[in-house]
What does this fold into?
Amino acid sequence: MELIPTALSRHDDGKLRIEWSDGSVRIYTPAKLRAICPCATCREKRSATSGESPKPRLLPVLSIAETQPIQVTRMRPVGNYAYNIGFSDGHDSGIFTFDFLHEVGQSPEAA
It folds into this structure.
């Protein structure tokens, strides 16, 4: 059975709610979606930081956007299989397939 979103909404707290064609409902926090972005750059960064590497000697400099709570700023359909999600930190290259989104979402009871 092909899973497709049937309804999409945003809660006042910024969480996304997607209703799926199988009748399930999933909740997504913008911070989690940003952290698991499937784009090549984000996957590479996660791989690089998952290994044992020396700690940087200097603290990183953060942009103003990086100091604010992350928000989803837009979601554009990609064909009939995914969404391209843009975030408030300017990142917008992740393509989130419907199967991936369904898998990583939380049920409303767990959220």
